[in-house]
Amino acid sequence: MTDTIVIVGASLAGGRAAESLRKLGHEGRIVLIGAEKDRPYDRPPLSKKAMRGQHPEEKLYFRAEDYYEANRIEVRFGTRAERLNGTAREVELAGGDKVAFDKLLIATGADARHLTCDGAGLHGIHYLRTLEDARAIRGELAPGKRVVIVGAGVIGMEVAASCREEGLAVTVLEIAHLPLVRAFGPDIGELYGRIHRERGVDVRCGVGVASFRGSARVEEVVTTTGEVIPCDFVVAGIGVVPATAWLEGSGVSLDRGVLVNEHCETTLPGVYAAGDVARFFSPRLGRYTMIESVENAQTQAGTAVNNMLGKRDVHSPVPWFWSDQYELKLQSVGDVEGYDRVVYRGSVEDKAFAAFLLAGDRVKGVVGVNRLKEIAAAKKLISASIPVTDAMLADPEIPMSKVLAAGAPPAAT
User: Can 5-111+242-308 and 125-238 be said to share one CATH topology?
Assistant: First the structure.
């Protein structure tokens, strides 16, 4: 195939898509366009070791600098796409350049949602989405400094753990009743709230931000309960917004992201989307959904590439997330809603357990702390909809392989 394939978005999904196209034998032109000046890199370390200066930046990048030229991948880093002309089949770039395509992959991801209250424009208020953001926060870190973190989602709590380990005084404000509740459910939210408080983090739930005060830099946070919290800087992790503004009027259907079918196709022929920007139809769920995760970005990009090259692969994953905070490895697989009971394996007190979320005799999701084997097996239980019993799930002496085998249908003869 000698088509020109343009990829807009040079993060995980876009970068891996460009690599895969060459590996799978695409001989045509590949153009990789990215708004960031940095070449594609790994984002999860940004809230942890990279932000703390403990992870060399060179190790974040997926490929060496000369990789793209050696593989005939044209790169336009530091260049923002401003418009998609669906009729002319061109991407219009900042500065006026236009890049024509035969096929297009939209992989622009999402941007950090920004605070809009009074004082939100003061210096010293940070967001964490890019390597440049991590560099800016790293410059603020020093033992004894006071940081207020707005939002107790995954990013907020990972930053809280990193700052606390660097010796900072940390206050977390979360409007919900528990931290991490949207991503991992109430049981994990309650546990991790307790863990952070034990480590010295001041976690305040049911509390939002009314305003920020300061002369040039932020100096105080005024909460929705009227409290005033002195601070040296702020990190806000209040969610993300799919980067779709440049697609308005293009003919691509948008609804809280780019709508794609199970083959990663948009409503424009030959135009695909993958990663955090894509809201895809999941045959497993029977509805549109969005999964903001590293694994989804990578696997969806792979599906999109295969289909660009003539296959009809289906993208219908079981969601998998993880978060490293302190010495704890938190993972979830499946859905953390729509269940009627929880079955535990392991010890919550020892912070080494798997919580199975069940509806009837089927596992809907699993959240585990330092229990990697259960998470791997649970993905198979969920994807194959294998029936289980509470007793087998709860017994740590029964290997997960036996749980899988007990519920699996007999092999055809």
Answer: yes
**DSSP designation for 155:** H
State yes or no: pLDDT of 97 exceeds 90.
yes
Domain 5-111+242-308: CATH superfamily, name plus number: FAD/NAD(P)-binding domain (3.50.50.60)
Domain topology for 125-238: FAD/NAD(P)-binding domain (3.50.50)
Q: What is the pLDDT of residues 350-359, one digit of tens each?
A: 999 999 999 9
Is the CA virtual torsion 136, 138, 141, 142 positive or negative? negative
Both tokens of residue 206?
Answer: 């049911």
Supply the CATH classification number for the domain 327-407. 3.30.390.30
Q: Each residue of 93-108: b (16+ CB within 10 Å) or e?
A: beeeeebebebbbbbb
**Would the pTM count as exceeding 0.90?**
yes
> Using CA atoms, how far apart are residues 104 and 107, in angstroms rounded to an integer?
10
Q: Tell the burial category of 27 from Cβ atoms under 10 Å away from its Cβ (0-12, 13-18, 19+).
A: exposed
- Sorted by sequence, the CB contacts under 8 Å of residue 129 that are 6+ apart come out as 43, 110, 111, 112, 240
Tokens linked to 21: 């196209």
